[in-house]
Design a protein that fits this description.
GO molecular function, one term: tRNA (guanine(18)-2'-O)-methyltransferase activity
Catalytic activity: guanosine(18) in tRNA + S-adenosyl-L-methionine = 2'-O-methylguanosine(18) in tRNA + S-adenosyl-L-homocysteine + H(+)
Organism: Meleagris gallopavo (Wild turkey)
Protein name: tRNA (guanosine(18)-2'-O)-methyltransferase TARBP1
EC number: 2.1.1.34
Radius of gyration: 41 Å
Structural class: mainly alpha
Shape: globular
Distance between the termini: 64 Å
Length: 1199
Amino acid sequence: YSPHLDAEGLLSVLLGAFSSPESSLFWWSAEENEKLLQFWETYILIMETLEGNQIHVIKPVLPKLNSLYELAISGEEGCWLFHPSWHMCIYKRMFESENKSLTKEGVLHFLELYETKHLPNSLGFSEFVIGPLMDALSESSLYSRTPSQLIGACPPLGMRLRKFLATYLMLLPEEEKGGFLLKFIQKMTNRHWCAVPILFLSMALAYIPACKVLGTDGLHALRDVLQCTMITHQILLRGAAQCYLLQAAMHLTDVVRFCFCSVFFFLLYGKSNIKWIELEAFLNPLLDVLMKLGSNAYIPTLKTDKSLQLLLKLLQTRSLKCSNTQDGYLTKTKILPCFKTIVNLIQVGDLDRCDLYLALIPEIVNLCLQLSSKKLTIIKNFISPLTNASIHNFRETNSAEELKLKEQIKKVTSIASLTVVCELVDQKPEAHLEDLPSVGALRRFTAFFQSNEVLKKPSYIEEKSGIFFFCSLCEETSQGWGRIVARYVRDQWICLRFVLNKLPMLAQEYEEGTSELLLLTAERSKEILESALETLTILPSDQVLPVFDCMKILVPKLLNLQESLCIEAFDLAWKIISSLSNTQLVFWSNLKAFVRFIFDNEVLAAAVSAKGPAYAKIKEIILKLIDMSTTKTGVFNVVLSHCCQSWILPTCDNRSAMRNPFLNAGNYCELIIEGCVFGTVFRRDQSTNRDDHYVRICAIKFLCLLDGSNILHKSFMEDIVIKLLEKDELVSRSRTRYYANSLQHRIKNRVWQTLLVLLPKLEQNFLCGILDKVFQAGFGNNQASVKYLIEWIVILSLHKYPQFLNKFWDCFCYDEEKLKTSICTFLSVFSHFDTILQNTSEKKPILKKALLVVLQWCFNHNFSVRLYALVALKKIWGMCRMLDVEEFEALTPVIESSLQQVENMHGTGNAGRNWQRIQDHFFFATFHPLEDYSLETIFYTLPRLSEVAEDEWISLCKFERFTDIPLPPAFQRYRSRAELLDLKPSDWSQQDTGSSSVDTDGQTEWTDVQKKIIPWKHSTPSSDLEMVLQDRAAKLGKSNSRLIVVASLIDKPTNLGGLCRTSEIFGASALVVGSLHYVQDKQFQHLSVSAEQWLPLVEVKPSQLVDYLQQKKTEGYTAIGVEQTAKSYDLTEYCFPEKSLLLLGNEHEGIPANLIHHLDVCVEIPQQGIIRSLNVHVSGALLIWEYTRQQVIKHKQQK
């Protein structure tokens, strides 16, 4: 604007901007006057609303942004009529808000808007995305999940960001895509990003459709982002982000535009300048050294060891996949020949070097097995001499009277070499190494050498200048020597384990009954077990695994003869495990070995056969493990998974003599029962990251594998069912508080889930015997989820065996006192009566009986019982009409009129709404007992719909991830029907949060919205609507006007007391308050000065205001809100109707937007000052007086 420009010239400049609006921030045109006014009025309304900085006020206004864009874009020309910066100002204000909820709402709205509306391209948008939008996206709290989402699901912002970025990039011109993406990625490196935002931004990049728009700069920027991800401590988030970034690099980079070195540099994250070289050129120097190991005595030891270490690392990292011809050729021609010289170096006097050489042997075997079976001769050529030499050295050192340090270390290396051979024979059966004569000699040698042989502790001066020099002799002799001795003892037990596992084979070699074979029987077993107990007391805890494995073989053979010795083994093993519970590194491996020992099928069977202290000791250990699992997650997983697999899945263990391991399942069924109900409840202040679902999944999948035609399985299932019912009864009798999502509720829920899984496998006679217990459980006061499961079981039982209906009719014969808390459970069964009678030919007598039973409950004094009975009556009567039975004609008028009266129950408050709700409830409207019978429905969908805590939902993907036990292919169904799965939780019996016609969380565009005040946030009501009308004034003959003052939103007693006094003075007909408890408040009474005694008071809770307003409007009242809105009337210009209802807002938040929607009009008080609002009592008093003044004048005029 220039001061020398006259008005006409200024107008022409502004009008000229119309042809190119994006280059100007503001323009006006007389022809577009109406559209421009509408745009700016909406714009100013939105900006003024944002001043409140409260999401409850702003959210109802956000839909107006959509109309703002419609006005700003020319449909014909497809261009901006208003500069995009105006829109960006709105979003920038929301992004920079201190209220994170408002920031999140703004980000979600921006992303959704650009995704759904094809906005014209603008450079300003790209700058805004890379600038303010990405700054807002750096806030981790925006990526929270919604309550209905599963743990691990992508949050709404992550999903919307993914769609937005793909859509936005595809709409950009080709020449701008690369530049935008490069700036976007570089922005991710310009600030300290947290792990969560960087993860979802990386995901958005990875999901962009493949387009080759990035060059070398883009690849370098992605590498910088990869480096940024390394700062986070969350390993899983870091790994996921890096995977997404690598995927983005593959999809978005143009490989033609950069060299291979750039890719290599990218993969190294810039941390190394190693050039890419040919594999053969890299290996040649190493191979030259290796080939000379056996022939050149002058190669330095350090160079030899470094070469071997490099070769070992190379083989381990490559895993010898030989993915191409060159690798296979190099392996065959260069590497294998070197191994012939390595074997000769193993028998040395240095333990570290010995470990290095021995570590190469498994890699040699893997290499030979992978390349060709012809290479097995190479394995045998070095296994045989190694075994024979080790046995020879061991015997030679044992024959000496006093061993020097050199000979002792030679014994250690010899037993270490034999250990490697034993493990190779066990782990690589395809190599057929057990056929070697040297391996047979190894078995015979190991079977009879003395266990727990220890080494003499070296002195300070012994062998100091010999071949072996103990490097830490001067300072750490005792500690270092202790580790060597522990290793030596452990290796003995590894070799002994190898022999014990091969006992059947060894017995065949001594089939003539020699004395050696007798040593392998009871006496020798006892001796070894005693040595094992001694070993457990001296070995470090991380070395006891082979001892546990040996005890697993020995205990079953000795349990009947040496029970006390076996119990001592149990106690000592448990002592070791319990002492390791806080040591993560060695605890789990030891626990698994302990479980394999204690819960070995042979051990369990032997303990059962004796039924003595050993059996009791195992039961005690089970309880201890369960107790440990409550504080250390994963313990019970290991126990139950091992037992379930060993009991029901076939095994190739030749050692087991049990004909049917499943016998152990029946004897130790408490493990399965505990697994079915496993899981505890933690307080919110306890920080836990537990997932106990896999215990229950293991137990459930085990039960799913059972076959009802198998006698053992059948007996086991019946035992489980009886004990589960007893557990449910025990929990019901418990005096512990039973509330929603309590531990008692969860246990009962898990019990009935398990019973529902087993139900199809149960026989008729057994089911008939337990049905009374099921009905008895239904008589209890159960939580909703348990109630649905019991009803489902009853429905399925009656469907399969309709002859059980007589038992069902008996449930209605108890007195009303017993049925008052349970009758709804049995009435709910009638809602699926068509499913029950599906297999019945004679339906008429059953329907007649059902009608007689249900009709008597339709007149019950309890409203909920009447509703359930009417739903049942509607279902049964529909079935009767389909059959067209003449016997029912006499009942037709009564039933039809009753049902018609219920259907027309509209506008009567909660009654009509609850009738509609119970019919729409999932259990009556969508759920089908047969078609919805699936694991997903039982363990995920039904708990979710019945509002069980989210940590109780077990999704189907968890069943699929747990692969230790497979599900049977013939299992009926796995997934819920889509109709049921898509439903949201909605229990009709819970109180409503508002009118069903108002979507407070949706993006409904209100016709009138609050401009400045935070709306009152209504809460869930706790009881049905109760009207408490005090008619003291009417009894005294006092005349009242027809003005109702509604102050339910006011929560300060002083304001309510003042309003009560004002309303009484000016003759209001009633004052509506949120709670009558305010009347007892001293501050209220101080201001009201006994006005509450002369004024009718009505209690209407804030959550019930919608219904109250609707009711009063039907009575002819005009609902008037005292609020400043976009369409409010000036108080001086408004004429009050005689029947007026005056709604006052909350002291701080005013009238919420959803209530404004239900008002007929809003009236505001004109003001001249700077402060924008009056005290609510003062505002109410002004309007009450204005109403009274107008009514007084009107009455005078009528006279």
